[in-house]
Amino acid sequence: MSGYKQWYLTREQVRAIDRRAVAEYGMNSLVLMENAGRGVAVLVRRLNPEKKLVTILCGPGNNGGDGFVIARHLENHGWPVRVWLFAPVRDSTANVLEFGISPDLSADAEANFRILARSGREITFVDSSGPALPEATLKQLTGEITLNECWIVDCLFGTGLDRPLDAPFDEVAAMINAGGNPVLAVDIPSGLDGDTGEPLGTTVKAAHTATFVGWKRGFEAESSHPWIGEVHTVDIGVPKRLVNEYRNA
Could you tell me the CATH number of the domain that includes residue 106? Predict the structure, then answer.
């Protein structure tokens, strides 16, 4: 595009934009998550017109919440979806009674988990508080993401991650990379430092990255390029006036 200049956001700027969109502009954080997930679902449909199985791997934070929204919108349009959730267990009798599981999630991720679970979508839950994946889970996950032809959507962790992936997430990331299936990372590949573009440890290697609002600072570094693949910017509805404060900084 003639005259186009790429611009980048640091981890703190991403947090500031989200915070200010809610506090100063009156946006609801659930609306931002809805817009993010719907935008990624549109991208997945474009990248996967053959409607191959989409396996969405969700973590306990808002990146995982995006995954629940993605799954709902893909299912609404007729794409086959499998959802895995890796999170610690929360002591909540009510959730166990309603859903059979009680994952410890961020507030917005919890809201979208409930919507998806109540819609009848099966969610394979893995307690991430253990040091390693149980053998039965390992076998099931290996079969799904390495033996089957599918798209993998990485919703384990977003730009807030500033440390190496803990177990069992490092093991899951390694399995994704060994699987040979195309991977779409949501906002940033899990395990990549959003500010430096350097892997923090085991890192998901994506063919495509759907990043929100603007490119992350680390994407400018050549070291990030083998991990991020082709980058697609997804609009989540943050007012242009707010975004331009950071675009022009």
Answer: 3.40.50.10260
